[in-house]
Amino acid sequence: MKKKDQNYILKLFPAIKKIKDPELSRKVLLLWYQAWKSSNYLRVEDVHQFEPARDYISYTNVAHTNQVCRACQAIAAMVSKELNLKLHMDYLLAGAILHDVDKIMIFDSKTGGFTETGRRKSHASPPCGPHRRQRRVPGSRSGNGKGAGRIVSPHPLSFPAMCHFHPQLRQAFERFFP
């Protein structure tokens, strides 16, 4: 990866610089670079949050990803303080930065529709689907110190059934946050 491409991606996603582990930071940066170069987008910031709704929602995937990163940091700070949990912020930030990296490959910059990759494997397909909704967060510690932290995957298999209306996701939240 050329230095100018590295600087370009770092400018788009400033949270990458907050990852303290240099190897993890490098991998996050490289994954965004590889996704971009395997797409037909000239600029990463041209990817819409959801291309088929471009005419109705004015929201880029870069803006969305950066908002998710800020929300992740705010929620992690609150949860860490309120529940006395030690969270692995590098992993949380990496997940927030990469949560929609595939959109640059599944949407076509020319048509606004799906690419062949997007038609074969949807954004909401496993491992993000509801049947795999519960995943361990490496390095997180619950009160028992045994690394039992869990996250809930944000994307249901059925895109029209948004997360907050999806019964299985609601059940997962009720289980972990009674």
Structure write-up:
This protein has 178 residues and is mainly alpha-helical. It folds into 2 domains: 1-120, no CATH class; 124-178, no CATH class. It has helices at residues 3-12, 22-37, 61-82, 89-98, 103-106, 116-120, 167-176, and strands spanning 134-136, 150-152. Strands 1-2 form a two-stranded antiparallel ribbon. Helix 1 (3-12) packs across helix 2 and helix 2 runs parallel beside helix 4. The longest helix is centred in the middle third of the chain and has 22 residues, at 61-82. The model is unreliable at 126-178 (pLDDT under 50).
SS-based structural class? Answer: mainly alpha
- Write the element-wise H/E pattern from the N-terminal end onward: HHHHHHEEH
Mass-distribution shape: globular
How much of the sequence lies in strands comes to: under 5%
- Total number of helical segments? 7
Mind describing the biggest β-sheet? Answer: 2 strands, antiparallel
Number of separate domains: 2
Average pLDDT figure: 75
Low-confidence stretches: 126-178
- Number of DSSP E strands: 2
Strand order of the largest sheet: 1-2
**What is the alpha-carbon Rg in Å?**
17 Å
N- and C-termini, Cα separation: 46 Å
Helix content: 40-55%
Secondary-structure blueprint of this entry?
Layout: H1 3-12, H2 22-37, H3 61-82, H4 89-98, H5 103-106, H6 116-120, E1 134-136, E2 150-152, H7 167-176
Antiparallel strand pairs: 1-2
